[in-house]
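Tokens as discussed.
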């Protein structure tokens, strides 16, 4: 049986051997210290370290990290804006100086996250404080770019860099949302009224143009009809005059009184009154004296026409 001293020695050797090696996971870098002072960094895989003297101070992940945060900002016109953001960041690289900054800038991970969140909130609030509430919703990309420009410089000093910042949700207080809804509704009503007015103006303008064109066409048609009617009456009178002149010549050649033509015209006129009348009442003097007076008047009119024509 082995002495106890030998057994203890063997156990000590085994423990020393085991403590001389450390495994670092992929995506992780380990920091070692000797008597509390930085010694070196250990890459992923199996690494040798001095047992009992060299200790692993911290293991740092170089993988991408994400954090979701919510905060509130105030616009220049005193409107409260609620933000929900997603932050994606990581260690800049695996260089020794970078890893040292990550490991020793903050006491622990909780303090780092607190500083990171407050930096994001401060940058967003500083930007929003210069804008009106009506501008915030349309400046989402500008807010992100402004925050990233400021935050990248700060994170670089800590050994990190900002990969992406997304403003997932931007909302206002209920009272502000109600007022904004009223503004949108009133603008929509205003646009609808303007569109309706424009449509009514176009409709009435087109109707007026159509009515004007109708009046113009009707006037032109009436003018053409009157002209044609006048030409027809003139031709009718010419034909009547030619016929009467021919009849008068024939009666003179037969030694007959031309007044018979006037009498025939008179009787034809009376006949036409009776046939074409539409219920109108026409009073004619049918006495002998009346007939004689009518014949005298017609003969006198015919004589005047003859005299005028001879002149």
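Sequence:
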């Amino acid at each position: 049986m082995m002495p106890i001293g030998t057994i203890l020695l063997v156990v000590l050797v085994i423990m020393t051997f085991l403590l001389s090696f450390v495994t670092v996971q992929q995506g992780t870098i380990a920091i070692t210290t000797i008597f509390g002072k930085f010694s070196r960094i250990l890459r992923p895989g199996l690494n040798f370290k001095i047992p009992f003297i060299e200790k692993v101070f911290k293991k740092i992940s170089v993988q991408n990290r994400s954090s979701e945060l919510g905060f509130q900002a105030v616009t220049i016109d005193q409107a409260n804006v609620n933000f929900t953001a997603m932050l994606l960041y990581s260690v800049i690289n695996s260089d020794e100086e970078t890893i040292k900054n990550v490991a020793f800038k903050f006491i622990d991970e909780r303090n780092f996250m607190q500083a990171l969140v407050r930096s994001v909130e401060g940058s967003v609030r500083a930007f929003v404080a210069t804008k009106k509430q009506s501008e915030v919703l349309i400046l989402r990309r500008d807010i992100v770019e402004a925050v990233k420009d400021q935050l990248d410089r700060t994170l670089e000093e800590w050994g990190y860099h900002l990969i992406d910042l997304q403003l997932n949700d931007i909302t206002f207080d209920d009272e502000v949302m109600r007022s904004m809804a009223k503004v949108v509704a009133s603008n929509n009503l205003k646009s609808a009224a303007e569109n309706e007015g424009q449509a009514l103006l176009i409709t009435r303008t087109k109707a007026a143009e159509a009515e004007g064109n109708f009046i113009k066409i009707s006037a032109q048609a009436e003018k053409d009809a009157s002209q044609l009617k006048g030409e027809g009456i003139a031709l009718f009178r010419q034909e009547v005059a030619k016929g009467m002149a021919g009849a008068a010549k024939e009666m003179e050649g037969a030694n007959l009184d031309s007044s018979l033509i006037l009498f025939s015209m008179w009787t034809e006129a009376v006949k036409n009154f009776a046939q074409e009348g539409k219920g109108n009442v026409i009073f004619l003097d049918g006495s002998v004296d009346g007939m004689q007076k009518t014949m005298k008047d017609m003969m006198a009119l015919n004589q005047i026409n003859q005299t005028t024509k001879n002149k």
